Each structure stands twice: as structure tokens, then as C-alpha cells.
Known about the structure:
mainly alpha
Amino acid sequence: MVDYHRVLKAACIIFNMIMYTLLLVMNYAANNKSGILFGNKSVSQVIRKYSIEFSPAPYAFEIWKLVNAWTAAWILYTLSYIFRKRMPDALSPFFFVCFTLATVSNMAWTQFISWEMIKVTSGFVFAMVVFLYASLACSFAGLYKQRYFIGRFDYWVIHMLVNNGIVVYATWVTVAALRSLALILTYFHGIERELSVTIALGILMLLIVVWFILENTIFREDLLYTITIYPVLIWIFVASIILNLNRVSRLNTAIMQSLLAVSCTLFIGKISLVVWKIINKCRDTRAKADLAMMEITPGSDENREQKYTDRSENQELVD
């Protein structure tokens, strides 16, 4: 009998891999010195033309190599599902559909930005944000439902490789979406550059606060091992402050420096929390093992003593 759910999931995995491979090819063409395949300018040329105070240094965009490598790694991991007798259910077909839509949005953004259609690209970058966080939600929900059935290896790989990899991607794209918002306000709505950047930084500050509250309250267990958001923010703020030093208003400089300090503090706190949680789990496991041994040992002595007594009584009866 054909397992339609398995076939559907395998098709989603393969299609996701194909689309992301096409995206990598398109990104290479978009950043090639000879220009994009179907456009007029490369992505780097357009970004330099529409610069704002919140633009990071050029070397900051090297993070895309990390994003692509990390994403390729977990896509190859999911490809192994096809060859397993029992396919893990933590990552549903809807997860792959959401991530594929994020990939398609990225491809559209790459193409339209080469034509300098800035307003259209803003829509696609916000679409990327929505689909990436939707895929994250699917992953976390699947892990929660399958927490008693999924193997230890798959549990940790999904946490560390899939979830943290998508968070790196989503964090960078979220900041890019806010930069795009500031760019639209500056170049197409006549708002002063300083004010538009202040608005974008204010929204980013709000999002960091909301994420911090959620990961320490409602979704504390789900987001415990999701730690890559803060290193990405630190990377972005450092690159932005260095590039725009003495060229940014005092207010926006102070906001970026404050956000950098907050991101560093939260990152240290997150690492400390994870280490403390792991140590406590090890202690609890060791304590339960010691308690189990204490309960087993007296029982064994009593059984041994009872057998010895029974044997003595039987011997007396024989005598």
C-alpha cells in the first residue's frame, strides 16, 4: 500500500532542495562582476546606490556564505529522510512549503532589485520574513508534538542545525526588511534619512524585546536551544557602527550602540541559561539513577535473605 504522506513529504523535500539550488545559482549570477543574468545591475551596486545610515559594512554581507552553507547542511540532512524506513514527523510537509516560498521570495527579490524596483523588492523581503518565521513555527510545533517519539539524534539535529540555521537566515532578513522600510521612507516618501532610520531601529528594538519575552515565558522550553539570533544582531550592529562612525546622527548612533550592548548582554545570558539548564539536567539524571540504585539494592538484599531463610527451613524439614 502506498503511503501518500511519505510520498508528499519526499516530494516537498526534493522540491525544496531544487529551488534552493536555483537560488544559489541566481545569487552567484547576481553578485558576479559581469552583472545579473536578467537585469541591469548587480545587487551590490544597487545597495551602494541606495545607502542609509543603517547600512552595514560590505564585509558584513559575507554572512550569506554562512547562511547558505548552514541551509545546505540541513537540507542535505532532510534529504536523508527519503532513504529511511521510518521518516521523522517533526518536520511536516507544510514546513518545507513555507521555506520553499521563502526561497521563491528571495529569488524574486534578487531579480527585481537588479531592475532597481525598490518598492517591489520591499514586498518580497517582507514576504521572506513571514515565510521564514512560519517555517520556524512549523518546526517548533512539530518538535513539541513528537518530543516523546523522535530519536535523540534527530531531536538535537533539528534544534541545532535546522532551527538555529533558519534563525540566522530570518534575523538577517528581518534587519534587511527594516532597512528596506527606512529606504522606502527616505527615497520615496520624503522623510528625512535620520528619522526613517530611527523608526527602523525603534521597530527592531521592539522586536528584540518581544523575542526576549517570548523565549523566556511562553516558549521557554521550545526556544531554549535557539541561540543564533544574538550573534547575528551583534555582527550587524558592529558592522553598521564601524561603517557609519562619525557619519550618523548622535541619536541613531546611541540607539545602535545601545542595541549592540543589549544584544551582547542577552547573548551572554542565553549561553549561561543553556549551560545552567544542561548542568541541572545532568544532576537530575544522576540523582534519579542514585535513587533507583538505592531502591533496588535493599530489595535485592531482602530477596537474598529470604531465599537463604527458606533454604534453611527446608533443610531442617529434611533432617
